[in-house]
Amino acid sequence: MKRSTVLKRASILSAGVSLLLAAGIAIGSVPAYAANLIVNGGFETGSLSGWACTSASIVSSPVHSGSHALAGAASGSDNAKCTQTVSVQPNTAYALSAWVRGSYVYLGVTGGPSTWTPSASTYTQLKVSFTTGASQASAQVYLHGWYAQGTYHADDVVLDGPGGSDPTPTASPTMSPSPTTSPSASPTSPPPTSPPPSGLPKHALIGYLHASFANGSGYLRMADVPDAWDIVNLAFGEPTSVTSGDIRFSLCPASECPSVESEADFIAAIKAKQAKGKKVLLSIGGQNGQVQLTTTAARDRFVSSVGAVIDRYGLDGLDIDFEGHSLYLNAGDTDFRNPTTPVIVNLISALQTLKARYGARFTLTMAPETFFVQVGYQFYGGAGGGDNRTGSYLPVIHAMRDALTVLHVQDYNSGPVMGLDNQWHTMGGADFHIAMTDMVKAGFTVANTGHFFPGLREDQIGFGLPAAVSAGNGHTTPAQVHQALDCLVKAQNCGGYALRGGRSPSLRGLMTWSINWDRYYSWEFQNSHRPYLDALP
Questions:
Q1: DSSP, residue by residue, 379-418
Q2: Which of 168, 207, 270, 472 could cross-link to 466 by cystine, CB 3.0-4.6 Å?
């Protein structure tokens, strides 16, 4: 049923579990409104009016309803992302939906929830719900496909909820791989063979604690984090501006987290964890915390501000969770062993300075997305011809490999990635974790640069997972996680995949986003995986 030629459908959606926009408030349901806040959501204007797209057009077939639909031409270097920024009201529930068709089509809210379909031969409806933050006035919705997966179609995009004042539409980039094939090679230099003492158990459980914000999973006090967790990453330290290098961290405001503890109790709880051998780290970045150290002044400010947070709370070290556009490679920067791009060079220098300041007790972990690590096998940003962020973590990992405690790549919110078997691997099952982790252990030739990235020591390697279906795309059942661990640790139950890096008896363990989401789902992640890790040889 049509309402007009511009707004094809007025859709009233029922909500599931509310997820977050940055600092969002959880509620139990989304009320229905008779308004669609999306401009040209049905594309019936015959144009992209209201949308900002990287590679898209309007077509007359196939459509879900009416006469027009969106066609996003995802290529090897462009995922055909379309965005629209709309005005919203604070502390308000919204429901977003769209009808999509194609392979690996995504719908989401920048800084908030997203959903996707791996394959839709006919139009299929995607839905997400979210609640705005206490001072939020706008939200950016997006659609995109996946690199090299071909054209996708979208129609009847609806954002159901009350509007606010008019925002200015903007486009935002996404993180996705673009495929090429690179041959294997022999390492030019082997990784260290003698791991330094880390103070961690042989197989560790690592999780993120939502310490500075609230979301649908609820606030959890530091003192209430179970002792099953060996590393607790405080999410998040964020910069005062993208390029300032000035990192700030504070506990969630009581207005958003009524049960938040006092700072004194928080610090006391950290000390209690440490007395039991646990590590508590400051995690910097996250989806919303873009950090670009473009100058030496920003580098120095990063060092001083991060050091101040570590000292204030008595933390054990740092977790680098740079996402979005924090890291990239300038044209011509093709040797990960000798990077020249300022944001890379300055980050390495800052981490080296912090390591030197705190010495052997400094714990350093990293949580890159597959786009910034394994996709470097297919494409390297500085070599040109695609997204300049691909593989951009590799020079940082390489430069810090002797100081790195754990690299736990996010095996979620990812499209298909080519493994060392030159086959595509898709998130959500044991196969993806096996292939992605094997790349980090075995090492690989970096795209067409001719340079080999040496694998890490097995004790430096873990892999990351969503704690539950609401925590991120790519949730993996416990049985599939255990299959992946059996393959990686014992070279058993590999499902036909041949490990290039061999078995890893000292594989460090598992990371999850997040401890809060695990608590929300009755500790399924912890209760399933802590005993399994403890039982590994």
A1: --GGGSSS-TTTTTTHHHHHHTTTT--EEEEE-SS---EE
A2: 472
Cβ atoms 6, 117 nearer than 8 A = no
For tokens 């995690």, name the residue. Answer: 283
Tell me which residue of 395, 397, 402 sits closest to 367, measured CA to CA.
397
**Could you tell me what percentage of the chain is helix, strand and coil, using 3-state DSSP and rounding each to the nearest 5?**
20, 25, 50
Inter-CA distances, 37 with 3, 24, 65, 67, 252, Å: 14, 19, 18, 20, 30
Enter the DSSP assignment of 485: H
Catalytic residue ranges: 323
Nearest to 272 by CA among 310, 344, 221: 221
CA distances from residue 333 to 134, 198, 385 in whole angstroms, order as listed: 42, 33, 13
Report residue 495: phi and psi, to 5°. Answer: 65, 30
Measured distance CA(528)–CA(383) in Å, rounded: 43
Q: If we measure between CA atoms, which residue out of 456, 462, 470 comes closest to residue 513? A: 470
d(CA 97, CA 15): 11
Smallest Cα–Cα separation from 90: which of 129, 37, 131, 130? 131
Dmax (CA) for the chain in angstroms is 69
Burial class (CB in 10 A: 0-12, 13-18, 19+), 28: exposed
* Tokens (6 digits) for 41: 């959501």
The answer to whether 96 touches 128, Cβ cutoff 8 Å, is yes
* Residue in the block written with tokens 């539409």: 169
Q: If pLDDT is split at 50, 70 and 90, which confidence band does 198 have?
A: confident
CB within 8 Å of 93: residues ≥ 6 apart? 15, 18, 27, 29, 30, 31, 129, 130, 131, 161
Helices vs. strands in the chain: H and E counts, helices first: 8, 22
- Residue 306 token pair: 């991060």
Among residues 408, 430, 444, the alpha carbon closest in space to that of 477 is found at 430
pLDDT at 196: 64
pLDDT at 229: 98
Q: Are the CB atoms for 280 and 232 separated by under 8 Å?
A: yes
Computed over every residue of the chain, the mean pLDDT equals: 87
Question: Which residue, 477, 476, 482, is CA-closest to 495?
Answer: 482
